[in-house]
């Protein structure tokens, strides 16, 4: 679940969740101070996202308690990689290089898929959609997160584009029930 807040006060009042992306340019306060205050009550991973790119600013951000510091503008793929790295370092992201669901096996590192021990040929996008679902096996993955992973942008993956790729993926797997649509939310890879 994603919680979006716009002010320092709201950020400090919100549940920090599993990870905080903290813009340092907040309308009612300095993000550096917010980061320090978060650190007094929580060890949640914090990634500072800011336009402040000078070395002194980066050092100040990291010393305030941020686990990483990303300077705008940045590529979504870079931000996702940094989120993964921070979550791995903190133990919140356990790598799942190989996922088996029934007779479906997805080897994320080797980028291979097998159903009933037979290789299945997928396009790059189809594999990327399946890989993000496999990495979160059993949990609902919001459409936005699927789009960010597979297309590196929420805007490039129109609703219809994603629907077409998911339909093609279901057909190729021959197990349409494995890629479940959770209406209004996203998708889940599951066996029931």
Can you describe this structure?
- There is one protein chain.
- The protein has seven helices and twelve strands.
- It has a four-stranded antiparallel β-sheet, with helices on one face. Strands 1-4-5 form a three-stranded parallel β-sheet, sandwiched between helices.
- The radius of gyration is 19 Å and the shape is elongated.
- With 192 residues, the chain is of the alpha+beta class.
- Strand 4, helix 3 (55-63) and strand 5 (68-71) form a beta-alpha-beta unit.
- The longest helix is centred in the last third of the chain and has 15 residues, at 159-173.
- The chain has helices spanning 8-13, 31-41, 55-63, 76-89, 124-135, 143-151, 159-173, and strands at 20-23, 25-26, 29-30, 46-50, 68-71, 98-101, 104-107, 112-115, 118-119, 141-142, 179-182, 186-189.
- The two termini are 23 Å apart.
How much of the residues is beta strand, in percent? 15-25%
> What is the chain-wise order of helices and strands?
HEEEHEHEHEEEEHEHHEE
Question: Helical amount among residues, as a percent range?
Answer: 25-40%
The low-confidence parts are none
Identify the overall geometry: elongated
| Strand order, sheet with most strands | 6-7-8-9
Distance between the termini: 23 Å
Mean pLDDT: 87
How many strands in all?
12
Radius of gyration (Å): 19 Å
The biggest sheet, with number of strands, parallel, antiparallel or mixed sense and barrel status, is: 4 strands, antiparallel
Strand-pairing-aware structural class = alpha+beta
Number of helical stretches of at least 4 residues:
7
Keywords: DNA-binding, Phosphoprotein, Transcription, Transcription regulation, Two-component regulatory system
Modified residues (4-aspartylphosphate): 23
Protein name: Response regulator transcription factor
Domain OmpR/PhoB-type: 96-191
């Amino acid at each position: 679940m994603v919680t979006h807040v716009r002010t320092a006060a709201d950020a400090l009042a919100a549940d920090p969740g599993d990870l905080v992306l903290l813009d340092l340019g907040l309308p009612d306060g300095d993000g550096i101070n917010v980061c320090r205050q978060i650190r007094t009550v929580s060890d949640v991973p914090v990634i500072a996202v800011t336009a402040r790119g000078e070395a002194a600013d980066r050092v100040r951000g990291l010393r305030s308690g941020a686990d990483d510091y990303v300077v705008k503008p940045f590529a979504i793929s870079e931000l996702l990689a940094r989120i993964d790295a921070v979550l791995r370092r903190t133990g919140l992201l356990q790598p799942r290089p190989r996922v088996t669901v029934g007779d479906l096996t997805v080897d994320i590192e080797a980028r291979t898929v097998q159903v009933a021990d037979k290789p299945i040929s997928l396009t790059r996008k189809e594999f990327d959609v399946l890989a993000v679902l496999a990495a979160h096996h059993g949990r609902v993955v919001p459409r936005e997160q699927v789009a960010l992973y597979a297309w590196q942008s929420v805007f490039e993956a129109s609703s219809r584009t994603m629907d077409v790729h998911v339909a093609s993926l279901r057909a190729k797997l021959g197990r349409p029930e494995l890629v479940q649509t959770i209406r209004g939310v996203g998708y889940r890879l599951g066996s029931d």
